[in-house]
Structures are given as structure tokens and as C-alpha cells.
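note to self — DONT lose this again. spent like an hour looking for the file last time. sequence + predicted structure for the chain T wanted, 198 res
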Amino acid sequence: MDSYSRLVAWLKVLLPLMALGLLSTLFLLSRNVDSTAAIPFAEKEIQDRMRDQQVTGPFFSGATGNGDLISFSANKVGKFALGTTHAEGVTAQIDLPSGSRISFSADFGDVNMTEQTSKLTGNVQITTSAGYVVMTELLTSSLKQLDVKSPDMVEGSGPIGQITAGSLHISSLHNNGPAQLIFTNRVKLIYDPQRQRD
């Protein structure tokens, strides 16, 4: 047997033994893992969740007596008190039987299931399928029917131009009819015929 064959024969025995030695040292030198240890959370985060009783990512949907479909979601819900639920990062949507859609978003929202009302505050944006986008700071709504009101200043744009007003009321004048955006109180319209042509 030549030297090359002897080397190959020795390597066939030596290399598997070295591999076994390396594997055994991995198990011998590895740290012990406590399988009963708690998942690490920041102490402040645990205290906040226990104090505020938060629910993250909630979703609610339902229908009004007129057949309007309502959906509601938020980043976080907490501070449950006196039948009112406080939410942060709110988005909502109303689909009307006529095919129209109204979407809402706001920094905060309060939903009172006892009174079937909701209140949105902070950077409230209203977007309609007819092409209107309206901003305000306060919006109240009924959960039983399409009855949305903003008693504060509203600013927006639509197919006819730029609109500002002291208040806004969104409702359906007839059952299952289209939604009507009614601007009142010092209404100012900057008409833009180009928008209608687009």
C-alpha cells in the first residue's frame, strides 16, 4: 500500500472522530437555557398595559336600521368607563345601500355603545366616494343611522373646488338614498371648473 492510500485510510477514520469531538464540545460548552423563564418585556410596558387595560388592533362591524354597513378599527383601545370606549388611531367606514362609501380617520375616538354614538377628535379626515375630502377637529356620529355632524370649522376639497364652512352635516334625506354633505355657517366655496373637467 503506497503512502497516498495509507493517508486516505487514516483520514477516513480521523475526520469522523474530529467531527464527533467538535459536536461534543458544542454541547459541553453551551449555556444552560431556562425554559421556564418569562418572555422579556420592558417593565414600563407591562405596567402601562396593566394600568390602562389596553386592547391592540380591535375591529368592529355592524349595520344600521337602514342597511348602512359600518366598520371600525383602531390601533389601540383602552380606558373603558361609563359605557364609553376610548380608542387611538381610529379608522371607520360606512357603506350605503346606494353604493356610496364614506371613510373616516382620526387621532382619537370615543364610542358609547349604550347611547349608540361615537365622537372622533384630532385631525379628523372624511373621504367620500364622490371625491370629497374634508378635514376637521371634531365629528360626532350616530351608530343607528347615517347622522354625522361636525360643529367645528371644516376645510375640504371636492369635484367643484375648495370649501370651508363653520359646520358640516352628513345624512341621507331618504331611506337608502345617497349621502348628502350639507355645509352650513359661513360657507366659502372657491369654484374650480377645471376639477369638473378632470
